[in-house]
């Protein structure tokens, strides 16, 4: 297994990167560098908002050039550190590359609750959500054009962690456990990203009526007692927007019944990559995650799952609160 010298964070705006990276740096006794703080300072000096600076950087390469060279120099120095940066994963070769995600409305709530500043200020939840999406899309497009890399591709990272319901302490401890080799070592040895997902945001792909053992109280009790880190990883596909189960519905159900905010998983395929029988992740999800499948799973576990676009357009759509076929 690769010995990780540093930890580099990137991910969704509002996912808690600053909170988590600050505390991890303290606990590990490492220096922390925040490129986000640097960009906010640059925006303030130019009397711009963070979004305006992102849009300006699409035209002026000097903005990224200065920050890029700083990251290259730090990576080349060999210093062990914690770095909070949108692109550090591209420059560091010996770091644990952590990508943090969260549900967009929850991210907007968190950002809206922060003290506002000249570089980042929002007047409503909807404005925050819209501006965060615009900033993310601006960065993604700029990185694709300028560096030829897509920050949305999960295989760029070692660890993807969903912070939607997990507390900062839970996220911090899980990341440290991965960094120190106590969690996910087998998955990482395979060269596959380790996913720590919110089980309430993972979609089923089988009818609940055909799944046996979901309500095995002894199994659920054993899972609850052992904790989420002891759960064998699920096998997961990713459409670019939605995570879905390829193998492990019973374990996912037990995690939900146990109230876990995180569940370990390995990525089998994303977007156009094959997941089962040569079908791409998108095609498999579209074929298997039917409205009735989603509704019955959500109703059985008390966890609302928004219907994806393909399900809203599908022929067997059900209304919220209406029983499906396998309840």
- Multimeric state of these chains? single chain
What is the share of helical residues?
40-55%
For the biggest β-sheet, the strand order reads 2-3-1-4-5-6-10-8-9-7
* Low-pLDDT windows of residues: 317-327
Number of strands: 12
> At the first level of CATH, what is the class of the domain at 6-160?
Alpha Beta
- For this structure, what is the CATH homologous superfamily of the domain at 6-160? P-loop containing nucleotide triphosphate hydrolases
Gross geometry: globular
| End-to-end gap | 44 Å
Order of helices and strands: EHEHHHEHEHHEHHEEHEEHEEEHHH
How many helix segments?
14
Q: Tell me about the largest β-sheet.
A: 10 strands, mixed
CATH topology of the domain at 6-160: Rossmann fold
Overall structural class, as computed from helix and strand content, comes to alpha/beta
Q: For the CA atoms, what is the radius of gyration?
A: 20 Å
In CATH, the architecture of the domain at 6-160 is 3-Layer(aba) Sandwich
């Amino acid at each position: 297994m690769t010995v990780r010298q540093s930890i580099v964070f990137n991910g969704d705006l509002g996912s808690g990167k600053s909170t988590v990276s600050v505390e991890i740096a303290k606990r590990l006794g490492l220096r922390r560098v925040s490129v986000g703080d640097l960009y906010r300072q640059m925006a303030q000096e130019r009397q711009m908002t963070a979004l305006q600076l992102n849009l300006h950087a699409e035209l002026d390469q000097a903005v990224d050039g200065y920050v890029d060279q700083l990251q290259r120099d730090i990576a080349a120095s060999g210093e062990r550190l914690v770095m909070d940066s949108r692109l550090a994963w591209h420059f560091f070769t010996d770091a644990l590359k952590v990508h943090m995600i969260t549900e967009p409305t929850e991210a907007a709530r968190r950002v809206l609750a922060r003290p506002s500043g000249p570089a980042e200020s929002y007047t409503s939840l909807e404005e925050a959500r819209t501006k965060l999406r615009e900033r993310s899309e601006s960065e993604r497009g700029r990185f694709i054009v300028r560096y030829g890399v897509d920050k949305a591709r999960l295989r760029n990272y070692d660890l993807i962690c969903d912070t939607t319901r997990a507390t900062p302490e839970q996220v911090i401890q899980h990341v440290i456990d991965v960094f120190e080799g106590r969690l996910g070592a087998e998955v990482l040895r395979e060269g596959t990203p380790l996913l720590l997902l919110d089980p309430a945001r993972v979609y089923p792909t089988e009818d609940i009526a055909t799944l046996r053992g979901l309500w095995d109280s002894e199994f659920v009790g054993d899972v609850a007692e052992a904790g989420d880190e002891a759960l064998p990883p699920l096998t997961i596909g990713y459409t670019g927007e939605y995570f879905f189960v390829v193998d492990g519905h019973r374990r996912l159900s037990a995690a939900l019944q146990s109230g876990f905010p995180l569940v370990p998983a390995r990525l089998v395929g994303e977007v156009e990559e094959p997941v089962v029988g040569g079908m791409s992740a998108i095609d498999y999800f579209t074929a298997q995650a039917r409205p009735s499948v989603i509704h019955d799973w959500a109703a059985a576990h008390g966890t609302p799952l928004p219907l994806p676009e393909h399900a809203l357009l599908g022929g067997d759509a059900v209304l919220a609160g209406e029983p499906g076929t396998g309840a």
